[in-house]
Amino acid sequence: MSTVNISAKDVMKLRDRTGLGMGDCKNALVETKGDMEAAEKLIRERMKGKMDARTDRAAGEGCVSVAIAGGKAAIVEIRSETDFTARNEEFRTMAADVAKLALGHAAGKVTADKAIIDRVDVVRRKTGENISFSRGEVLSGGSFASYVHHDGKLGVVLQYEIENAGGELPADIGTGICQHIAAAVPTPAAIDASGLDPAVVAAKRAEAVAEAQASGKPAQIAEKMAEGKLRKFFEEVTLLGQPYVRDDKMQVGQVVPKGVKLVKFVRVRLGQD
Prior knowledge:
The chain is of the alpha+beta class and 273 residues long. It is built from ten helices and nine strands.
């Protein structure tokens, strides 16, 4: 019976692709008569059951990654079991690759497709950890600024439009606004009041009116008191109304250059919805 000569070079190549031991890689190549692609497929099929069995293990670590290209921006969260793995260069590279793959999706929430799953699985097999694509979102149109915190666990993408030929958002201001979204307490709920949940605004308005009326002031004064309370609420929870984290003597709206309109932002903190 003829045997296939499996070179050490081929075994190493398969090991680099899969992260498995030399013996497992050689056995797979022998079974597939030296066919590299078939051997990798065989290993994927065999490992799938083992990896799926690990999905019940807590994945409380990971990182956030952002990609911007071709009029789109993507922000993704990849989860791992340990911070050691999450800080690994190979893990971070994989997360960056997944963000780039997400750019191929339509605007909105991202569901992991085969390309994303396969890219994540490369690191899953090598680490033996429960590593997964947790979530992602794509923004499309206009221009973008972004910020990812140094620990990789918090990221922001800001979408904006240039409304006239003279409008421009300098990179430092774009980054600063993203840092504000990342750090502000409370986290802004919307760009401005028009983006807030109407039910929340209605409830706050009713609450303000009730408080003003309870004060016993004349109706006209009570109405002004209620409007003042509502304005304060908008300043507290909207991006443009909040005191800027880099200079709290200014509101964020005051640092946005004329001719620039902020459209949307997405903030992702590891492990938080």
